[in-house]
Amino acid sequence: MNIPDIISSEEQLDTFLAEPYPETVKMMRNLKGDIMILGVAGKMGPSLARLARNATNEAGIDRSIFGVSRFSNSGVQDQLESWGVETIQCDLANYGELAALPDAENVIFMAGKKFGSVGSEPETWLLNTLVPGYVAKRFQKSRIVVFSTGCVYDLVSRETGGSKESDPPGPIGEYANSCLGRERIFEYLSGQSNTPGLLFRLNYAIDLRYGVLLDIAQSVYENREIDITVDDVNIIWQGDANNRALLSLAHTSVPPAVLNVTGPEIISVTKVAREFGRIFNKDVRLSGTPINRSYLSNASQSIRLFGEPRISVDRMVHWTAEWIRCGGYVYGKPTMFQITDGNYLQ
Ligand SMILES: NC(=O)c1ccc[n+]([C@@H]2O[C@H](COP(=O)([O-])OP(=O)(O)OC[C@H]3O[C@@H](n4cnc5c(N)ncnc54)[C@H](OP(=O)(O)O)[C@@H]3O)[C@@H](O)[C@H]2O)c1
Asked: Ligand 1 centre from 278 Cα, in Å?
């Protein structure tokens, strides 16, 4: 893997995000069957699907990579097809459409609803619990990696080192509760049908077009105040997260395995903001008092399985700063990492 000094275009970013680890290529050589990514059209899915395609090609294996979504945003479907991903338009909430999907031995489930869950609670529960139930039933003969979130835990202090997989869940608010619901439904149906699964509890992926670092950097660059009530976060480069998602296909079990996926260190928002201030030569305006309670996950188990993430925090900070300086494209989707009451309004 050639790690670039800077990333200056979306094309370069997309190409780099889709570079497989050597061990991902090796795993793809041993994995049997096609891969289907459900909910592929979001922030992570396209790069995951392309990574799966590239890793399979490098492994010299003949396999289909299916990308399934409603494709609400135009352009994503064509882009995926151009990368060799076979796209299928499907609303997973419609069991008839789901039932008509082709079989696949390997499924990665990424669909869900977080932003705007306040005000559309019934839809949030539909997407985060009923749809997972449909998927677990439809693909009961597959192995399934289920994207979940560190929000299923309670908030913890920095001194704990982050929640471990063995800690009891303590979800706050409807979104987090519905995510625990997603896990429980998969767990139950995995036991009923002997379907191997893995619950992939992710904390904050970093792409340059969205993510916690972009949120902080943009505030510094635009002289906006940064609320440091939540001063501690975990992050991981999206390419590292996606390689880990594919590698997780080899670690599914009955009952489903649980895995925290994030970087090894706890990042201070204050320190990162000051670093962006230094790079941009800007004053940093902070507000609020840290409460020393936030969503932090202990990633030791995934690091034991897959090694340290390849991309360091320093490098992500540097790339993000350069991305902003050269006017790189951003999605305009803030992570809202400061939310502690579980109310994701937008
Ligand atoms: N990104 C992160 O840092 C992060 C952190 C923690 C957890 N996660 C979880 O990881 C998963 C993937 O992350 P993400 O950031 O890529 O999420 P995302 O941007 O919300 O993407 C999920 C995609 O699923 C599709 N989808 C939703 N409902 C669907 C339905 N009924 N039928 C078919 N497709 C549907 C949507 O595309 P269409 O509208 O085109 O169907 C949506 O873009 C999510 O479950 C997320 O909550 C992500």
From this structure: 34
CATH number at residue 72: 3.40.50.720
| pTM for this prediction | 0.97
In this structure, is residue 32 part of a structural domain?
A: yes
Angle at 320 between CA 319 and CA 321, to 5 degrees: 95
For the chain, state the CA radius of gyration. Answer: 19
CA distances (Å), 199 to each of 60, 299, 332, 335, in order? 29, 14, 28, 21
Residue found under tokens 């501690």: 232
pLDDT single digits (tens) 278-319: 999 999 999 999 999 999 999 999 999 999 999 999 999 999
What residue ranges line ligand 1, CB within 6 angstroms? 39, 41-45, 69-72, 90-93, 110-112, 114, 127, 131, 147, 149, 202, 204-205
- 339 inside domain: no
Residue 1 lies in a domain: no
Q: 178 in a domain, yes or no?
A: yes
Structural domain total, the chain: 1
Residue closest via CA to ligand 1's atom 1 equals 205
